[in-house]
Structures are given as structure tokens and as C-alpha cells.
Design a protein that fits this description.
- The chain is an alpha+beta fold and 354 residues long.
- It has 8 helices and 19 strands.
- The strands form 3 sheets. Strands 3, 6, 7, 8, 13, 14, 15, 16 and 17 form a 9-stranded mixed sheet that branches.
- Helix 1 runs parallel beside helix 7 and helix 3 packs across helix 7.
- The longest helix has 19 residues.
- It is elongated.
Amino acid sequence: MNVDCIILGQGLCGTLMSYELYKRKKSFVVIDDGNRLASSKVAAGLINPVTGKRFVKSWKYDELIHSAIEVYEELEIVLERKLLRKLDMIQLHTGADEQNNFQKRLETETHLSTIDDSVFLKTYFNFDYGAGKIAPCFVVDSSELLAGWRNELIADNCLLEETFDWNNCIAGSKGIRYKHFSASTIICCEGAASFHNPYFQLLPFSLNKGQALIVDIPELPKDKIFKHHFKFIPLHDNLFWVGSSFEWKYENTQPTVSFTATVPNYLRKILCLPFTVIEAAASERPSSVDYRPFVGFHPHQPAIGLLNGMGSKGFLQAPFFARQLASHLFNGTEILSDVDVKRFSKILSRFGKA
């Protein structure tokens, strides 16, 4: 079977990449094994305009958010599902340093503002250092997005549900062959699995583990995100996604006893409300050492592309760079040099020696 492109993985990047091909009326097949612990499925889908302890605006935020809103709103129409919510984030300061950093940024960062009356917050939380507001933030319903698009792929006979095997893939000057598929290109959107991709495993990935709890908090308002040491992101019904951890050393990608015990103790101290822990979730994030995504084609295997390394900013960055990669593939437009995998051409020249 001949297609224009094979897409490896149906997490966030694979979903958005295949959507870009769908819009361009290109033929493709997505190969995905349905891993329920993929980072896109566990993620809260948060888009935050500022980042870090000093509340600095996220890299290229103004440009990226425009594409993100546009793409998610398009997909809402295609999938006939609500995917995107616009919410304020209430920042409950954890200490004097954080409070001071927030105050310093108020003069120059338009996404930050003070809260005139934070007394109402004391009804819900125990905190001692004041609060501020970060707005607007956005939350993408990752479960609805991924499940909805998967149903579309199945209906269009564009999904091959299996574990991809590189031993069955042949890359040559005329394109890609995988089992009975032939394609001009393959785009690898494998998430953390790209760490073991024979063509891209030498890239400077910086994998980390994130954990979160799904918590039932009936009396906590659902129209805002709250952030203290952890984020409280409203889901459906009375549920909140509470997380996430950033762990650089870990034995596996399962929820740990330490996390599932420590966070409820934290909740008992910070919350003035009753709650019930429903479940724990964990996954491995595919980040890069320079905090920039990996986008583009292998410098020595031009039929093999990559869209990965989005880290914790995936729901902001992936729509823009999926569109850019598709435009590069079919229209020859340039990929932003900050993210182009060719910035690691020297490393990738050793791909056959890993």
C-alpha cells in the first residue's frame, strides 16, 4: 500500500502531525500500540504563558499560542468535542522569595496581576504568603483529543494498531518501506520511545518522569486553576488533576509509593476541604537538554523525520511545529533553526554507530 507518509506514534505530536496531513489531503498511516501510559495521555494539557520560579514569559509564547488556539478550535469542529478551556490560574505563593519574584514581574509581564481580595481563598486553602493571578491560561482535554482523533483514524482506515519494529523498516533514497507499506517519508512522533530510535537515539534527550493524582474535591471551584507546590487543574465532574513532579532519576515509569503517600499528606495540610484520591498516574516526558523541540529530517537519512522533545510545553508548542514540519515537507518552507534537528548534524552523523 502506497501512502505519502507513515507517522510513528499517536500521542500529541502524532495526532497533530497526522491532522496537518489530513488538512492537506495527503495519504498517511499512523502506527501506534495504544500505550495508555504515554505522556500525552497522562498530561493535564496545561498551557501557561509564564514559566519557572521567576515567572518569565514562555519562549515564543505569542507566536505559539496563536497557532495552538487555532488548531485546537479547528479540531473541536472536526471532532465535535469541546477541547479547549480558557481559565485563570490563581498562584498561591509558597514563600517570600516566590511572592517577591511575582511582585517584581508585575510591572513588565501583562499576564500577571494581583488579587485585590484573597480572603475567599482562605476558605479553600491554608497559605501564608498571598496570591496573584496568571491569565489567560488554557487547558486542552488531552483524553478527548487523542481518543477523538483515534476514532477518526480508525474510521478512515488510517491506523495500524501494533508495536512498530524498526527491523521491518527499510529506509532508502526512494523512501520508506515498512511491511506492506511504502511511503515517501516517516515522521517519528514516539515520545520517550525516541530515546531508543536507531536514527535519533544519539540526540541529547533529557527524559524525566512526572507523577500526578486524580483527586475528587467537590467543594473546590471548577472555573479556575490553582497552583501552590502543585497545580490543581479541574477535569470533569468534581475531579482535579494534582501534580506534577519532575524526577530526573527513577527506576521505572510507574507511580511511586513515596509520591502517592506524600501528596495526600500535603493535601491535608494545604486544603481546607474534604477530598478523595481516585487514582495515581505517571509517565516519562521526552524533553531536550537545550529545552527546544526536535523538528525536521535526519541530515543523512532525508526520508526519516522527527517531531518530538516538547517536554512540559507540548500543548503549546506542538501545534505550531507540526504545522511547520508539514509545510516544510510539502512546500519547502524552512524549519526554525532553534528546533531543527540539523543543529545536531555532527552527532547524527554517527547514527549507525550507536
